[in-house]
Amino acid sequence: MLSSLGITSTRSLLTQVLNFALVLSSAFMLWKALSVAADSPSPIVVVLSGSMEPAFERGDLLFLWNRAPDTRVGDIVVYNVRGKDIPIVHRVVRRFGGGATPLRLLTKGDNNAADDTELYAPGQNYLDREKDVIGSVVGYVPMVGYVTILLSEYPWLKKAMLGIMGLTVVLQRE
């Protein structure tokens, strides 16, 4: 009787761990599918600063699309600065080239006084549309991304949430 109780408990725990792994792998596959559909390495980003207020506030979740390479003045793009990890969300204020020559962009935050040339990599005066821009903003959900900001600003919160999720998996009964 006691050994069958141990097998049932082990089997139940294994089922819960596998269900948790299934949820994680499904989220990863959804992320990759969105990346392919949007042609962007990061199809969803969170606004981390107030530089785009009032258009976007800190914590807004943005949806990106990178399949329309003809970016226009006024479009809001997300770009990576060479040598830095955090993407920047700003509006295109000027464009150079296009067609036969590579499209180059100059950006600026709506809430900033000057353009982004100070944010670009040393020696860079514009963004290369193909190399630097990871997508144009096509939609957003207000404040939903604030959880991401909290998790990055308070590392202990990330550990606490992972611990709670792990406990939930272990203690959940079907």
Automatic annotation (TrEMBL):
GO terms for molecular function: serine-type endopeptidase activity; signal peptidase activity. It is a single-pass type II membrane protein. It is found in: Endoplasmic reticulum membrane. It is an enzyme of class 3 (hydrolase). GO terms for cellular component: signal peptidase complex. GO terms for biological process: signal peptide processing. Catalytic component of the signal peptidase complex (SPC) which catalyzes the cleavage of N-terminal signal sequences from nascent proteins as they are translocated into the lumen of the endoplasmic reticulum. Specifically cleaves N-terminal signal peptides that contain a hydrophobic alpha-helix (h-region) shorter than 18-20 amino acids. Belongs to the peptidase S26B family. This is Signal peptidase complex catalytic subunit SEC11. It comes from Trichodelitschia bisporula.
